[in-house]
Amino acid sequence: MSGDVTSNDVSDDVLEVNFDGLVGPTHNYAGLAHGNVASMRHGGLASNPREAALQGLAKMKSLMDAGYAQGVLPPQQRPDLGALRALGFSGSNGEVLTKAATEAPQILRAVCSASSMWTANAATVTPSVDAPDGRVHITPANLQSSFHRYLEPDTTGRVLQAIFRDERHFAHHPVLPATPAFSDEGAANHTRLAAEHGDSGVHLYVYGRQAFGGERAPRRYPARQTREASQAVARQHGLSESQTVFAQQHPDAIDAGVFHNDVIAVGNGPVLLYHEMAFLDEQATLDELRRKMATPLIPVRVPVEAIPLEDVVSTYLFNSQLLTNPDGSMTLVVPGECQEHERVWRVIQDLLLAGYNPISDVVVKDVKQSMRNGGGPACLRLRVALNATERRSLGARVLLDEALHADLTQWVERHYRDRLTPEDLADPQLVDETLAALDDLTRRLGIGNVYPFQR
């Protein structure tokens, strides 16, 4: 796909481009994310970085082949030796890794995390059609709720500025203060609803808690997004009260392992597919959306009797991609775990596909390497609605086509290991391998020197 208008153009020249994160060479199961049940359950297992990266590329290519606009985002520099040195580990690269592995193995695992593959957490994006200045607005998430993700925003900001570099079309905002009061997890807690991608939309921001007083909070697992952070991002982007809805995620869902809203709800166009336990005040959320949307909201509700919360978490049904087709119908891209679960698969067939809604097709994708670390198809992509001029102004080779897919596949097969255990993270050779891989990648993407070791 060249990045110009395609058969999937649903409103004038505006396309929603799904920017998927390339899985990094240090993809491993460290069990770092407290509250992410899948991540904690698989901590310590051997991973396959090559298979994970190829699974991600296969998903991207299949969607590209189906006519959807698909982009890629590069991974972070890992291991993050700068973070280790800032924490007092000194010496050569090998010495730093050895000391960290001996004295603080969990810190070593954190600085080797490949979590940037889940680009739904990279940033929050407002398309130009909604912004008062007619530009696309981008705020990288501070991800301050966990150390391994807190390391990402600086590089993420440089990557996004390198890709969306034309100031006539793109506006970049600083990350919010990295404090608990402004804990921001990006687009994983943000959904834009509109008749079509090129129409003005309403932005649904879902938060887990209020920093300064507020409603119920979860008791077992942390609420990662604050209302204050969501409001600040909306202000940065110039959105008005009539364009925004702020809703609290149900605390019981968070305590069941629903750490982001995109694990229990997904929206596309005028459709909001959600679980009964997604919002603390379901009716008030729907009423406000209906009041502010210019087109009728199409809610698709899955009751808890049909799918208990534990099945929501184990299958990631709602962490699926919901994509618009040229005829206005929608395709739901689900992880293979949904098909393997009899009750969830039956709900997909009997409630979603047979229901009175635009969802007409389901596509199953194998993303097990990502699922075991707690991320499904929706975690793997950042949605950016762009018109033709904005697509042509992108400052790097990041819109997927046959040539780029072949190039990236060859890059993965050349640089990635097929097995990685937590103990392997102390291997000094892994540093050399990953830096060589990332240096090669920046040349292939034409993205410039975005990594610390290149600066």
Low-confidence stretches: 1-11, 33-40
CATH architecture: 5-stranded Propeller
Counted beta strands: 15
- Specify Rg, calculated over alpha carbons: 21 Å
Ends distance = 31 Å
Which short descriptors sum up this protein?
455 residues; alpha/beta; L-arginine/glycine Amidinotransferase, Chain A; three-stranded mixed β-sheet; disordered N terminus
Give the structure's gist in a few sentences.
With 455 residues, the protein is α/β, with parallel strands linked by helices. It has helices at 37-41, 49-65, 81-86, 93-103, 105-111, 147-150, 153-163, 227-236, 251-255, 282-292, 309-315, 336-340, 342-353, 368-371, 388-392, 402-415, 428-445, and strands at residues 15-21, 70-73, 123-126, 136-140, 170-172, 190-193, 202-207, 244-248, 265-268, 271-275, 298-302, 321-324, 330-335, 359-365, 381-386.
